[in-house]
Design brief:
Helix content: 40-55%
Largest sheet: 4 strands, parallel
Organism: Clytia hemisphaerica
Distance between the termini: 12 Å
Number of strands: 4
Pfam family, one: Methyltransf_32
CATH topology: Rossmann fold
Domain Methyltransferase: 80-186
Radius of gyration: 16 Å
Oligomer: single chain
InterPro entries: Methyltranfer_dom, SAM-dependent_MTases_sf
Strand order of the largest sheet: 3-2-1-4
Bound molecules: S-adenosylmethionine
Mean pLDDT: 83
Region (Disordered): 57-83
């Protein structure tokens, strides 16, 4: 985890508001710097900024509740979310061993964690978010799927002090990304 203020700014590289095109350009420009910082701290940055060509998910074969569209996203968002999840899942699955505990920090409606839980019933998935509405949505999807390997925490991620084997997050807001990185490093 970077400790230097300037480095941390590079990791929390974007303001919450602003023109999406400008924000995207800033992020793209910052990617090599972020990659370097992660590497300096021995964090693997496999696939950083790459498109996932090895699609690991056949959405058509999944029940509707596993798919992000089951989480009430509009079709465009749902398509992008599918691609993001494919990228993340293709990196997470090869790391998993039976019995592992995966925590999805800032899980929102649980789009990523639900796919992992569905594909790996032999692993435990923790979904954590501080927004009740999102956790309720995730919870009802899990219930309809009948998954038994998911636990929920409605809390700020800073308060989570359980152990885990793999920590992940997708689109954590602002400094939450840094906090997740810190949690993962401290748990190594
Ligand atoms: C942009 S949403 C992403 C949700 C989900 N990961 C996805 O990709 O659809 C960011 C989520 O992070 C949660 N969040 C932000 N800061 C948090 C914190 N400190 N602790 C727990 N959750 C947090 C918000 O409630 C929100 O649900």
């Amino acid at each position: 985890m970077p400790t230097n203020e300037e480095e941390i700014k590079h990791v929390s590289f974007t303001e919450k508001s602003g023109n999406p095109k400008q924000v995207h350009a800033k992020i793209t420009k910052a990617l090599p710097t972020i990659k370097n910082i992660l590497e300096q701290h021995r964090l693997n940055s496999i696939g950083f900024g790459e498109n996932n060509e090895n699609k690991t998910i056949s959405w058509e074969d999944f029940p509707n509740e596993v798919d992000p569209s089951g989480g009430e996203l509009n079709p465009d968002r749902s398509k992008r979310k599918r691609q993001q999840i494919e990228n993340m899942v293709s990196r997470i699955l090869p790391l998993l061993r039976t019995g592992d505990k995966i925590v999805e920090f800032c899980a929102g409606g649980g789009h990523l964690g639900i796919v992992v839980a569905y594909l790996r019933p032999d692993c435990q998935v923790v979904l954590l978010d501080n927004k009740e509405e999102s956790m309720n949505r995730a919870c009802s999807r899990i219930k309809s799927l009948g998954l038994k390997n998911v636990t929920f925490y409605l809390t700020n991620l800073e308060y989570y002090n359980g152990s885990f084997d793999i920590g992940t997050t997708l689109h954590a807001c602002g400094t939450a990304t840094d906090l997740v990185l810190k949690k993962c490093i401290n748990d190594r």
